[in-house]
Amino acid sequence: xxxxxxxPVLVTGLxxxxxxxxxxxxxxxxxxSYMLKAALFGLRLERYKRRARFxxxxxxFLAAVRxxxxxxxxxxxxxxHSYSDVDRQSNKVARALQKEAGLKEGDIVALxxxxxxxFIWIWLGLAKLGCAAALLNFNIRSKSLLHCFSCCGANVxxxxxxxxxxxxxxxxxxxxxxISVYVxxxxxxxxxxxxxxxxxxxxxxxxxxxxxxxxxxxxSTALYIYTSGTTGLPKAATVTHERIWAASFIxxxxxxxxxxxxxxxxxxxxxxxxxxxFTGGIERGNSLVLKxxxxxxxxxxxxxxxxxxxxxxxxxxxxxxxxTPKRDNxxxxxxxxxIGNGVRADVWNEFLNRFGNIYVRELYAATEGNIGFINYxxxxxxxxxxxxxxxxxxxxxxxxxxIEKEEPVRNADGLxxxxxxxxxxxxxxKITRKSPFVGYAGNKQQTEKKRLxxxxxxxxxxxxxxxLLKIDHENFVYFHDRVGDTFRWKGENxxxxxxxxxxxxxxxxxxxxxxxxxxKGHEGRIGMAAVVLKxxxxxxxxxxxxxxxxxxPVYASPRFIxxxxxxxxxxxxxxxxxxxxxEGFNPALVRDPMFFLDLxxxxxxxxxxxxxxxxxxxxxxL
Length: 622
Known about the structure:
The chain folds into four domains: 3-47; 51-293, Rossmann fold; 386-482, Luciferase, domain 3 (Roll); 487-617, ANL, C-terminal domain (GMP Synthetase, Chain A, domain 3, 2-Layer Sandwich). It is built from 19 helices and 30 strands. Strands 2-1-11-10-12-13-14-15 form an eight-stranded mixed sheet. The longest helix has 23 residues, at 28-50. It is globular, with a radius of gyration of 26 Å.
């Protein structure tokens, strides 16, 4: 048959076939586009891993320095630092720490810093020496701070000058372990803390030899990022160089290019700000706007000032922006993509209606997890889609979960039961070479708790995400809830056992059961505790406030306390929480005495119906 006859027929047939498929599968084009992008990024990573010398995100940064040395890399307040500026500054940091602290490949250094450019060039300097960094949450104090430092095995601590007071509290314990502490100032009068700023300023800024990090591979630990678990103190999730690459690709998958300007107002000690924001910016070769902390009133002005085109968010970010007074110019900006997680569908819709047609890339992921999703469509309220290629390379499933017993449902053969379509189920990811679960530094017990065995066949091994998700009939994936003894508030994970341990330090409290409760108009759950008082004691509202504010970050402090005569236990002696969570903190429904943490009066005050109504109406800020 003549080519001029069969070619048009073939083309027409293919067009008809694609049209039929698109009608039956309206998201086919988006699914294919996502699969193609993901496959290309995956191939890139495999190439980097197979090189004679592993090509790290640091090597990517150095390539960007050579390609566009004068391009702005970090905008911070009134200063702009080019790629070359940051490179030279990180060289000075590396040489100063090499000389003063004797750092070498394989050493671990803890960073106790806020959001500022030095955070970035200090990490790059450490990477040039082949060192791993532990990113400490600057809100933690006392026991938690010492624990987070100790569990990662660091022998050096670098602290911001304004955080020195928190370090001084644990300094005796650090001295006992012969830990070197350096503060980012010229001098320090505290014995055991040395100023490092002058050494950095005097150090040469010449390039360092790659031989200093010659043994770094994709499996080497690059970071420790802390995550609150179901029990106890924060856990140090081990982040390898391979995982840094995987997280840095999220910007590319989301459609971000080298011409974009990304606004980072999330803390750099979190995986979102550091991995998706900072290292993602290196992978793309774009410019970053760094903010000390999020400010709703300054947000859009900053976006206009720096020509921001990509923003990061958590659910609270969008809610705060939607709560700002309306302005005539609030659509006058260049933001086209928003990357983040945890936003409710109603806030999502309001955000789009007010601020324009921004492409919201809602995602689901965990720092230590081996499975994640990203919403590459414009459907509101979802975290992603079931995608053949994704599931082929990173096998996962949703399984039935017993909320009361806090464990997966198993059949007569002892195997887990898949959740039905539309039914919330526990997300589990199969642990394989391509989707490993590395675990937590210095915590084999908690690492093992996240491993789920005999899921679908005897001997298989899955990562237990601790989260309930659901999949609808169109293959869209939704986040449903967090399970276990962890809740999320103000974008932070809170471990209830850690909070309970602090409450037990209050002299009048015998026992505490901590949980998170929903508050109308807020994302996540706020902290609440049911407590039993010591015999013959009244609730000391001032002492309770003193203890929680001294030992807990604001986001982890229980805002509501409920006094009970006894705490209900399960058959296995676990504290019952489900009923308490459902009952919440409404005085009209709860008979027990309840108190509200008043941070202005610095004590817990009686929770009246009037206070409850003001909280629900949003007149009392939480």
